[in-house]
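Q: My labmate handed me this sequence with no annotations at all. I'd like to see what the chain might look like in three dimensions before we decide whether it's worth expressing. Could you predict it?
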Amino acid sequence: MARAPLLQLSDISLTFGGNPVFDGLSLVVQPGDRVALVGRNGSGKSTLMKVMAGLVEPDQGTRVVPPGVSVGYMEQDPDMEGFATLGEYAASALGEGEEYRVEMVAEGLKFTPDTPVATASGGERRRAALAKLLAEAPELMLLDEPTNHLDIQAIEWLEAELKNTRTAFVLISHDRAFLRALTRATLWIDRGEVRRRESGFDGFEDWRETTWAEEDEARHKLDRKIKAEAKWAVEGISARRKRNQGRVRALAVLRDERSSQIRRQGTAALELETTTTSGKRVIEAKGLEKTFGDKQIVTGFDLRILRGDRVAFVGPNGVGKTTLLKMLTGEVAPDHGTVTLGTNLDVAVFDQSRAQLDPKATLWENLTGDPLMRVSGASDQVMVRGTPKHVVAYLKDFLFDERQARAPVKSLSGGEKARLLLAKLMAKPSNLLILDEPTNDLDVETLDLLQDILGDFDGTVLLVSHDRDFIDRIATATVAMEGNGRATVYPGGWSDYAAQRTVAAALIDREGPAPRPKSEPAPEAPRPKSAGLSFTERKRLDELPGIMERLEAEIAKLTEFLAAPELYTKEPAKFRKATEALTERQEALHTAETEWLYLAERA
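A: Here is what I predict for the chain of 603 residues:
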């Protein structure tokens, strides 16, 4: 027997400021649904979610929630007035004796329930709002950007919770990895229309491109038909005036249909320009140590960054990623160690706090008031990569319309603030980009474009992000900050780092490396032809595959042993010996592989 829907919207119409957001929108959410709600920044995703939650009344249409069904909504800016602590707010809808539910989710989300509301940061307040929703466990959860302000460990915890829940949910997120892992259906908002596809986010982009291609083809056919009918009207109407008035009226209908079609919004005109080429060595850090109070940021940290590198910094919130970035750029001095900056560096910074934007000033004033963008004697122009440009024209490149130019920054959504900050950053040539949480609130299309321009950027990029997919797409190296001063450099992006952290088996006892277990013999490969090799070389060629297999097994075991979170702090001697052993075996493997390739090619 089919179960009743949890939520049903029928013929919803809504207008803000004279502009229709939705017109005749209908949708249904069923028990067990796991839905991605996607669309451009400003397309109405958050507004639709508030309509679904019953927080925004539509101009027309109906919202139906069956009796006994509870719908929970994660507020972006929760009202905590009247609550002393975050925990008190998070438990406000729970019954007596159920406060433990908040404690359970608070640990995973990494927020302290005892934190006073008066001193809580925006990120802590949002984590409390998410904890409140998870603790209440409604039949339908509406989650608007739940991963913002969460570090990767907390995101992975939330991902596991949502995978295991039986609760239906609708999810807005810019985090591709999060969406791919959790969703089974997709709602796509595009120019006020909502389309549903019974498949998760993984195939969304192909679906979107196919839909747009079909739309372009239909528009092209309509244009050709209008052109042909208009030609007939001009050339033949005088001879058949009475008989063909119906055809003239049909032409008018075609023109009305064409004019009523809403054009797709273009993509932001993101562009980066490098200044003079920096030196080959951009930053070299040796023996960095930094402590704040009793908190150790890094100890004995070395890093060399060369021109063109893309280095990602990952780790829990509060571990010191931004502080390390500031040490590497000379903004904060280390307690010990040295940082040497390369030559000809022009630095551009995207800060996660958006501190470069004045929330009370207009978009116009934020651009023209920047000393590096100001054009002398022209209050309506800004300097864009060395060329004056009208401020409204430049804002339109970043998808802002003329009315928004005179609106205060505080009226913008999170994604719009991120786009405005990118507009400021990209107006000035640079060769070293510092990107501290650039992906928060950006839509998928803008993230794609940002990724592409970073790929073409000739300079160097230092990136702090909790977006695993974005790190994988951008980073050539990852610095993992794991607390207690430990920071380790891994080649590749997030997936490469995660793989190296979870390789199997340990190979160290109390005094050092334990006796190595004998590995299974490698299957015997066909003997290569050995013409041109001496007897000793032929014997060595036969031995090398087994040697390489043994070294690979030992490297895997040592890597997992070193992945233990508390090894460095509790047993530093073992950690040091294991690191030395790992380096030795990696070098031996490289030598063996090179020797085998040389002999095999000769054979």
